Amino acid sequence: QKNLSLFSPEQIELAKMLVEMGQSHLFQHWPEPGVDDEEKKAFFDQVALLNSSYPGGLASYIKTARELLADSKAGKNPFDGFTPSVPIGENLNFGDENFIKFEEAGVREAQNAAFVLVAGGLGERLGYNGIKVALPMETTTGTCFLQHYIESILALQEASCRLTQGKYERDIPFVIMTSDDTHARTLQLLESNSYFGMKPSQVNLLKQEKVACLEDNDARLAGDPQNKYRIQTKPHGHGDVHSLLYSSGLLNKWIDAGLRWILFFQDTNGLLFKAIPASLGVSATKQYHVNSLAVPRKAKEAIGGITRLTHADGRSMVINVEYNQLDPLLRATGHPDGDVNCETGYSPFPGNINQLILELGPYIEELKKTGGAIKEFVNPKYKDSSKTSFKSSTRLECMMQDYPKTLPPSARVGFTVMNTWLAYAPVKSNPEDAAKVPKGNPYHSATSGEMAIYRANSLILRKVGVKVDDPVQQVFNGQEVEVWPCITWNPKWGLTFSEVKSKVSGSCSISQRSVMAIKGVNVFLEDLSLDGALVIKSVDEAEVRIGGSLRNKGWILENVDYKDTSVPEEIRIRGFRFNKIEQLEKHYSEPGKFDLKA
Ligand code: UGB
Fold first, then answer.
1. Distance between CA 97 and CA 477 in Å, rounded?
2. Any idea which UniProt keywords this protein has (predicted)?
3. ipTM score here?
């Protein structure tokens, strides 16, 4: 009361709302007017932000929190009444006739798509100090994730334009969701690299705000331990992307421009774009409103399971069940062993890799109803079994893949299962945790993420007829991985099976110890036998034919210990680095036709 004269009418309204919502403890320690007045005003700036960035405002947040905390205390099962079963989706196998057909359909549709990268997470599990999208995806060329994503979108844009004979010639919009943890560094990465070749006008950054922390079951907001005039905040989860897109106005702009698809993806999956054209083709062909990309999942792997949930009252939906919920759900519904592999060696539930393709029109219609709000959950860590107090403050969270939960049963919700080697190799775990992963389960580490790229490229080349030698097993940072020839190419060289096939002819072979990096478009491998390191860069207008028997001492993979702080962090988390002994490196910077014959 004593402080009221300091504040604007809007701030007084916010104070009233807080008091009405049982939050008067936030002001209890406030001193007389004249003391810390600026801090008091700053408190209301924060409250105003928390209020405006949550659909329905802070009062709605507190109300939902009370309900969810009561459910959690009562041990209420979020899947009460639902029985899980294995859903049926589209299964694709790279290089099959079906796959090639979907790829072509997807490339055509790419002109009508917008891409959204959720990159607000700091990646606590990885423990890397920088932002994850700045990490090199592989160290043969050092290309970082963000560069690869942008180059992939640009390559799709060009391929789509070629295939549709320039019918649209659109710049594919690209949105990045950031947070306070990642925003400035993401922008700086883009600006210092000229947006990796994309037009800055094509890129939109949307920053998600954190949400207020809760200190008890009454949803009393937690004070910030660092500053008594602030509320403690924590991330709300990737589900924020829907409300942010809705309030940004971009969706209407896109639909007016004739776009039809919106593709969501995560920050550190270097393989993903190899699976995008075919899965977009599936969406277009099957007219899916929602299409989730999935891979075969190992039981207990830290990826959600795509599940059909059927309610006793007849409702049914295909939805992701998060990895920590799948096992208890199965146990509670007549599967006493819980989340276990079946006779295939995999969980019967396909693994959600959180790549969602939504049809824009139905998406906008749904968001008009919900404002982009996603069903939330709360995960308090209780001090003891009385569940009356928390070990540390908690908050509400939401996940982008829960979007279909509010859809009517008539919505066409499907999923597409791809080969894991082609589609999924995230970088999420630190070396120590990865080394503890049970044998046969994926590490999801920087080591496995990079090796998966070489394996995928080797397997793709095999599929188009190149003889690629078998891998050897090696241990890096305590993780045993397959080491294939280190082959990389930029997305413009070959984003689809057909494109790669068109670049290779005759009888080509690559030995296990080889390294091949192609940074160009019109680079053709003709009767090439490679045993060593080859690095080719060329401008788009140069046509380069490479053949003959090419042999040199090559590059050698050396072990690095992740604890060795004399080595840069982005290298030591992989457990290896290249010793570049000898290579053939050529740069074609002028237009023309060139032959490189060994
Ligand atoms: N992210 C944000 O942008 N904002 C946030 O507040 C939080 C995250 P994690 P998670 O495919 O591997 C997901 O932490 O949430 C971004 C699926 O839920 O890497 O544990 C963040 O930057 C799970 O079903 O993953 O698990 C990153 O890009 C499974 O599919 C993305 O959200 C799993 O991913 C994911 O965040 C997977």
1. 40
2. Nucleotidyltransferase, Transferase
3. 0.98
